């Protein structure tokens, strides 16, 4: 098994608020790891450290074999083309159509100029997320679920090796949540991506996880499959599954 993301002894504080005390996690190639944890435990801070938006105070954090804190600006940029980060809001450009929103990262990040390649990759990702009919729509004309799909399409179009999902189903009805969860699973299978999925949605966790880790008070306190953790002897761990 090839380790794609490796966190060892990660610590992170903001002033006197120690958020991450000792975070250890290895994610292997092609694996979907779901992170559970109560609000404010440091889940989002952990994935922000992975993409280099935040830097840990101590510990080693390697992505695709590279120690992220040692990367220069250009190397960090290069790494970010391999790591897709799905923000909760989808972060779409409201003045651009769906098609333009998708072409933008190809032109800007990957410097692709060939119109036919842009067009074929746009169609491919729209098909992958089931949004072919929305190609000429403005983001403001999309529903919440469609915006999530669109955010996913925009993450996918640069073909990242790693996708980090921060609460991909929050704010969606249960049917749409299930569709998005299924989509996350389909993407893993189709592109062999490696993912970390932060969620409070247990149906999303059940559908997408190869492995679940539980974060509490700045550490991972448990790991296992959905079925294993659901039957844990520890009442706190079981409480996530009720
Ligand atoms: N940039 C920052 N500056 C200062 N404090 C921060 C910053 N980012 C996060 N924190 C603090 O770190 C702690 C953990 O935040 P984080 O966003 O990781 O929680 P979370 O586990 O993702 O919670 P939720 O499930 O509610 O999203 C919180 O106390 C938060 O206030
Ligand atoms: Mg969070």
Automatic annotation (TrEMBL):
The keyword Nucleotide-binding applies. It comes from the Bacteria. One of its GO terms (molecular function) is ATP hydrolysis activity. InterPro entries: AAA+_ATPase, ABC_transporter-like_ATP-bd, ABC_transporter-like_CS, P-loop_NTPase. Residues 5-242 form the ABC transporter domain. Coiled coil: none annotated. Keywords: ATP-binding, Nucleotide-binding, Transport. This is Phospholipid/cholesterol/gamma-HCH transport system ATP-binding protein. It comes from Sediminibacterium ginsengisoli.
């Amino acid at each position: 098994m090839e380790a794609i993301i490796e966190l060892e002894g990660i610590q992170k504080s903001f002033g006197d608020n120690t958020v991450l005390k000792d975070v250890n996690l290895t994610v292997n190639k092609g694996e979907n790891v779901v992170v559970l944890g109560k609000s404010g435990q440091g889940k989002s801070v952990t994935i922000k450290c992975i993409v280099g938006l935040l830097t840990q105070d101590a510990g080693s954090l390697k992505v695709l074999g590279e120690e992220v804190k040692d990367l220069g600006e250009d190397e960090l940029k290069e790494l970010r083309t391999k790591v897709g980060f799905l923000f909760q809001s989808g972060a779409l450009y409201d003045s651009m159509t769906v098609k333009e929103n998708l072409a933008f990262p190809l032109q800007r990040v990957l410097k692709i100029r060939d119109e036919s390649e842009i067009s074929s990759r746009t169609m491919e990702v729209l098909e992958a997320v089931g949004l072919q009919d929305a190609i000429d729509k403005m983001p403001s004309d999309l529903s919440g679920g469609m915006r999530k799909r669109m955010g996913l399409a925009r993450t996918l179009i640069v073909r990242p090796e790693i996708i980090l999902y921060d609460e991909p189903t929050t704010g969606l009805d249960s049917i749409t949540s299930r569709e998005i969860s299924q989509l996350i699973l389909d993407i893993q299978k189709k592109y062999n991506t490696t993912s970390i999925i932060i969620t409070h949605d247990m149906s999303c966790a059940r559908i997408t996880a190869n492995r679940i880790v539980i974060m509490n008070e700045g550490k991972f306190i448990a790991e296992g499959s959905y079925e294993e953790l659901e039957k844990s002897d520890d009442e706190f761990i079981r409480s996530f599954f009720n």
